[in-house]
Amino acid sequence: METIVIIGNGIAGVTAARHIRKLSNNRIIIVSAESDYFFSRTALMYVYMGHMQFKHIQPYEDWFWDQNNIELVNGYVTNVDTDQKQLLVDGARSLDYDKLIIATGSKPNKFGWKGQDLHGVQGLYSKQDLELLEVNAPNKDKCKRAVIVGGGLIGIELAEMLRSRDIPVTFLVRESSFWNGVLPEGESQMINEHILEHHIDLRLSTNLEEIIADENGRASAVKTDKGDTISCNLVGLTAGVTPNVKFLEGSKIELGKGVKVNHFLETNVKDVYAIGDCAEQHEPIGNRRPVEAVWYTGRMMGETIAQTICGNRMEYKPGHWFNSAKFLDIEYQTYGWVFGSKGRQSYESHFHWRHPKEKICVTVAFHKDTQQFLGINTFGIRMRHELFDQWLTNEKSIDFVMEHLVDANFDPELYLQYEKEILAKYNTDFSKSLKLKKKSNKRIFQLNI
Amino acid sequence: MSTYDRSMALTGQPPKSLSRNQKLATLLGMFGLVVLVLASFNFNFQNKTLWLSIAISAISIGVFWFSKEAYSEKFPGIKNDGVWFKSISSRGFWAWIAGIALTAFYIVLYFFPEYLGLVKDGGNKGVIALFDPLSRFLSGNPASQWFVYGTLYTVAILVFGIKFMWKYRHNRYERIRTISVMFFQTAFAFIIPELMARLNGDKILNGGSLPYYDLKNMWPLNYYNFEGYRIKGFLSSGDIGFALLIFGILSVFVISPILTYRYGKRWYCSWVCGCGGLAETAGDSFRHLSDKTVKAWKIERWVVHSVVVFVTLMTTAVIYSYLGTDTSKYWLTKSTFLIGMAVLLTSVFAWVMAFKRNELQKDAQYGAIGYFVIIMVLLGIHFFSGEGNVFLFKSETLRKSYSFLIGSIFSGVIGTGFYPIFGNRVWCRFGCPMAAILGFQQRLFSKFRITTNGGQCISCGNCSTYCEMGIDVRAYAQKGENIVRSSCVGCGICSAVCPRGVLKLENGPLKNRIEGNQILLGNDVDLMTLVNQK
Question: What is the ipTM of this complex?
Answer without folding.
Answer: 0.95
